[in-house]
Design brief:
This protein is mainly alpha-helical. It is built from ten helices and no strands.
């Protein structure tokens, strides 16, 4: 393991007994995949996928939970932001990566209604109107530094990118999607360690059951 993952693994070990077993497993799994992502060299596609798995290990709930993906993410980020006293998540979005966040928001290829309109041969222009309205809402949230709203929008976009890669909707190392894969991987590599560290610092938080417990 390297960089963030090793430091987080050491911290988890030092906090033995502080976390309920499902939370400990959740954090341990997230750190393991973060470590694999950090060991990846120049393969941006692999790096993004490993980082997404790390993030998924951190937030996903057990199967059968009625909340949608978006609702789960919203609730997860709300819990973290409530305890992020030093505003580290805010800092990643608005201090380090405000440029890539804006570029991601402005990219139609990670906007799901664009692809839906293409699949359904919808020439009504509804996706364009939704895209422009979404961009305005997102940029307003950026300007007002509404961290939770921006996180939600960013992960909506990243989830589309995740689907493209995981479901074979993109060519490995393709030239046509390098910008979003690069920016997505960089964003995740900055956000995921902060997410895990917030979870480590606050064992009182309940993130629900894990999908595949150790049996």
């Amino acid at each position: 393991m390297t960089a963030h993952a090793q430091a987080l693994k050491t911290k988890l070990k030092a906090q033995e007994g502080r976390h309920a077993e499902p939370a400990r497993i959740r954090i341990h799994r997230a750190i393991s995949w973060l470590g694999r992502a950090e060991a990846e060299g120049s393969d941006l596609d692999a790096r993004f996928v490993f980082l997404w798995i790390a993030f998924n290990a951190a937030y996903a709930q057990e199967f059968g939970h009625e909340a949608t993906q978006r609702e789960q993410l919203r609730a997860f980020f709300a819990r973290l932001l409530a305890v992020d006293a030093t505003r580290r998540l805010h800092g990643v979005l608005f201090d380090r990566y405000s440029g890539p966040v804006r570029v991601l928001i402005d990219n139609r290829f990670v906007f799901e209604p664009f692809w839906r309109a293409l699949r359904e041969h919808d020439g009504s222009g509804s996706w364009e109107r939704a895209f422009e309205a979404g961009k305005k809402a997102a940029l307003r949230a950026v300007v007002t530094q509404d961290t939770q709203t921006v996180l939600g929008i960013v992960f909506d976009r990243l989830y589309v990118l995740r689907n493209q890669l995981v479901h074979g909707g993109a060519t490995w190392n393709s030239k046509v999607n390098r910008d979003q894969v690069r920016d997505g991987a960089n964003l995740l590599h900055s956000l995921v360690p902060v997410v895990i560290d917030c979870m480590l610092e606050h064992p009182e938080l309940d993130f629900g059951g894990i999908a595949y417990p150790v049996v």
